[in-house]
Design brief:
2 copies of one chain form a homodimer.
Chain A (H helix, E strand, L loop, with lengths): L3 E8 L2 E8 L2 E5 L1 E3 L12 H6 L5 E3 L1 H15 L2 H6 L5 E3 L3 H5 L5 E3 L4 E4 L6 E4 L1 H12 L3 E3 L11 H22 L7 E6 L5 H14 L3 E4 L8 H11 L9 E3 L5 H9 L4 E3 L2 H7 L2 E4 L2 E4 L19 H4 L3 H9 L3 H27 L3 H11 L7
Parallel strand pairs in A: 4-14, 5-6, 6-10, 10-11, 11-12, 12-13, 13-14
Antiparallel strand pairs in A: 1-2, 2-3, 7-8, 8-9, 15-16
C-alpha cells in the first residue's frame, strides 16, 4: 500500500501527523468537507480548495443513484468529474440507506432499498459497495459497508448488529483484495454506547486488518457527553499506527474533545448545512447572521482570517443577502464555516506539535461556554 | 466632469472606445452584468470580476427597499457593501416600479408605490431617485427617472408619456446639479416605436444636456425586428460624442445588431437568469444543459474560453448538477454566460477596431440561425 500514516507529535492522547496518499498528504487531525452529490453544496471547487482542505468526502448512496456508478466511471471517476485532484474518501452508502426507514430491508446479503429519487429498486452489498467506491467512483479511501446501530438499541440488538457489520467487514476486505496499490480500506467499529461491545467490534476488525479504523454509530442522538465517554473506551482499542476516523462528527466542541481522545479524521455536513441556513461559527461561538443586530454591523466575521468569505464581506452585507434570499449568502457562509473548521484543525495541529493542546482546549471550552476542565 | 468618452474606431455605425471614469475605464461596446440586490445572482464578486466586466448595474428599486438607501449610505455605499471597486451604473427605480402594475400610481410629482416585500408605501420622485443613486447608493452613472412607455401604446399615449419623462429629465438634471465631479447623469429617450416621437424625445433631452443618452422602452414585447427598426431611427438622433446605452437588452443577437447601429452600452438579466435555469449561450447558439444528450458529454462548454466555468467542468457534470438541483450548477452557468457575454463584447470591440465588424456580424448571424444580411 502506498498509504503511510506518520505521527509527528502527541500531546496526551491527541496526535498530529500526516496520512500520505498517492493523491497527496492529509494533515491530521483532518476535517473532510462533505461533497454529497459530487459538489460541496453551494461552493465552487476553487472556493473549497481555498479553505485548505486536504481531502473531501463523497456519498456513495447519492452517487450510485445520480449520476450512477457506471456512468461516473465512463466519465473518468469522481475526481475528474468534480475537478478535485486531491484525495477523496467515500462512505459505503450504508448510513444513508439505513436512514431510509421504510424504504429498505436489511438481510445477511446486504440492503435492498428503493431510490428516494424515482423509487427504483437497488441492492447494496459489501461487494457492490467496494466495486462502486473503488472501481467506479475511484475513491482513495474506501469504507466497508456496515449497519449503523440505532441509538437506544439494547445490548443484545447492538451485539447482533455489530456482528453483522464485522461479517460485512470481512466480505469487504475479501472484495477489496490485496492488489489495490493506490487505495485504502477502512473498517468501522460499531457497538453503540456499550464499552464491551465497542471492544468486541474493534477486536473483530483488527483481526481482519484494515488500513484505518472508523468509529461509527455516534452523533446519532446520544449527545456530547455520551459520545465522549464512548470515545474514551473505544479509541484505546484501535491500533496506534493506523488513522482513526470519527464518522459524521460534528460541532467544533465535538472535534476538540475527539482530538483530545486521539481521533485523526472527521467529516460532517454541519458547516455547510448551517452556513446555508445563516449560522456562522466563530472563535467566540456561533452567530445567526439573520439576527437584526447584524443589519448595520460594518465588520466582517473575522478580519484576521485568510478566508475571503470571513475577512471581506461585512456582517451587514451577509445579513442583507440572507434577508433577500440571495444564493451568494449561502455560498459565503458555507465558505466561511469550512474555512473556520480548517482553521480550527490547523490550530489543533499546531497546538499538539507545541505541546499546548490542553491550553487551546481549555480556552476554546471557555469561549464556547462549556464547563471548565477538572 | 471627470468622465470622458473617447471613440477609438468606427466601422459603419458601430464604434469602439473607452468611457473613462474616476473608478476605472469602461471599454465600449460594454455589457453590464446586473447586480439587482447588491449581488450578481448566484455569483461571488471575484467570479464576476474574472469575466472581465468593467461595470455593474445596480437596481435602485431593490436597494431602496432592502437594505434601504440611508442604511446603505451608513454602510459606506454600494461599492463598499458588495466589494466592487469598479464603476456602477444604477437605474432610477422607475422601470421596476412601473412593472408593479396595481401597486403604483403615477402623477406629475413622481410614482407612489407599495413595496413588494412588506406592502409599505414609498414615493419615488426624480429628486429622490437622484438622491438615492448619487448620495446614498453612491453610483457612478446615474439614470434620470422616466416612465417606460408600454408597448402597444397609441401615438398620443406615447407622446404624453415621453413628455412626462422629459420633464422628469429636466428635474433630474436640476437635482443632480453641476457640482458632481465624479458622477455622470444619463437621460433616457422614450417614444415607443414611433420615429417622430423618438426624435422629439431625443431633442428634448439634448436641449437639457446629459453626460450620456439611454434608449428606454425597448425589449418590452416589440420583438427583435421592431427593436432594430426603432434603433435605426433613434441612434442617429443622439449626440456622437456621448455614450449610448440600450437599457435591458438583450440576447446575443440583439447586442450584435444594436452595436451595428451604434449602441455603446447594454445591461440585461438574461445571462444570469437563463444560467440559473440551465441555459448556456455558446458561439454555436444556446443549449439547455438539462437535455439528456449532455448526460455523458465529457467536454466542457468551451475548452478555448478563459472562463473557468466554460473551460473546466464537463457538460455531463453541469447536467448532473442541474438534475440534482445543486446550487453550483446555477453558479457555473451564470458564470459561463457572463463570461460568454464579455467575450462577445470583446470580439465585437476587436472586430470594429480592425474594420471587420461586418464579417463578425454575418458569421454570428449565420451560426445563430438568423437570416443572412442583404
Amino acid at each position: 500500500m502506498r498509504f503511510t500514516f506518520t505521527c509527528h507529535a502527541t500531546d496526551g492522547h491527541a496526535r498530529t501527523g500526516v496520512l500520505s496518499t498517492p493523491r497527496g498528504d492529509i494533515r491530521t487531525p483532518a476535517f473532510m468537507p462533505v461533497g454529497t452529490a459530487a459538489t460541496v453544496k453551494a461552493m465552487s471547487i476553487d472556493q473549497v480548495k481555498s479553505t485548505g482542505a486536504d481531502i473531501l468526502l463523497g456519498n456513495t448512496y447519492h452517487l450510485m443513484l445520480r449520476p450512477g456508478g457506471e456512468r461516473l466511471a465512463r466519465l473518468g471517476g469522481l475526481h475528474h468529474f468534480m475537478g478535485w485532484d486531491k484525495p477523496i474518501l467515500t462512505d459505503s452508502g450504508g448510513f444513508q440507506v439505513w436512514s431510509l426507514a421504510g424504504l429498505r430491508k436489511m438481510t445477511e446479503a446486504g440492503v435492498e432499498f428503493r431510490s428516494h429519487i424515482d423509487g427504483s429498486r437497488h441492492m447494496l452489498t459489501p461487494e457492490r459497495s467496494i466495486e462502486l467506491q473503488a472501481d467506479l467512483i475511484g475513491s482513495d479511501i474506501i469504507m466497508q459497508l456496515d449497519e449503523c446501530t440505532t441509538f437506544g438499541s439494547s445490548h443484545e440488538e447492538a451485539l447482533v448488529s455489530l456482528e453483522l457489520s464485522a461479517r460485512w467487514g470481512e466480505r469487504s476486505k475479501v472484495a477489496f483484495g490485496g492488489t489495490r496499490a493506490t487505495q485504502a480500506l477502512f473498517g468501522i467499529v460499531q457497538g453503540s454506547v456499550f464499552p464491551d461491545l465497542r471492544k468486541r467490534s474493534a477486536d473483530a476488525l483488527k483481526s481482519i486488518g484494515f488500513d484505518g479504523y472508523a468509529i461509527g454509530g455516534l452523533a446519532v442522538g446520544e449527545g456530547h457527553q455520551l459520545m465522549c465517554q464512548t470515545l474514551d473506551v473505544t479509541v484505546p482499542e484501535l491500533p496506534m499506527d493506523r488513522p482513526r476516523y470519527l464518522m459524521g462528527v460534528g460541532k467544533p466542541i465535538d472535534l476538540v474533545e475527539a482530538v483530545h481522545r486521539g481521533v485523526d479524521m472527521f467529516d460532517c455536513v454541519l458547516p455547510t448545512r448551517a452556513g446555508r441556513h445563516g449560522q456562522a461559527w466563530t472563535w467566540d461561538g456561533p452567530i445567526n447572521i439573520r439576527n437584526a443586530r447584524f443589519a448595520e454591523d460594518p465588520d466582517p466575521i473575522d478580519p484576521t482570517s485568510t478566508c475571503p468569505a470571513s475577512s471581506r464581506p461585512s456582517k451587514a452585507y451577509l445579513h442583507h443577502l440572507f434577508k433577500a434570499e440571495e444564493i451568494l449568502g449561502q455560498t459565503l457562509l458555507s465558505w466561511h464555516n469550512l474555512g473556520f473548521y480548517q482553521d480550527l484543525m490547523a490550530a489543533m495541529r499546531a497546538a499538539i506539535a507545541k505541546g499546548q493542546f490542553q491550553d487551546l482546549r481549555a480556552r476554546l471550552r471557555q469561549r464556547w461556554g462549556f464547563a471548565p476542565l477538572d
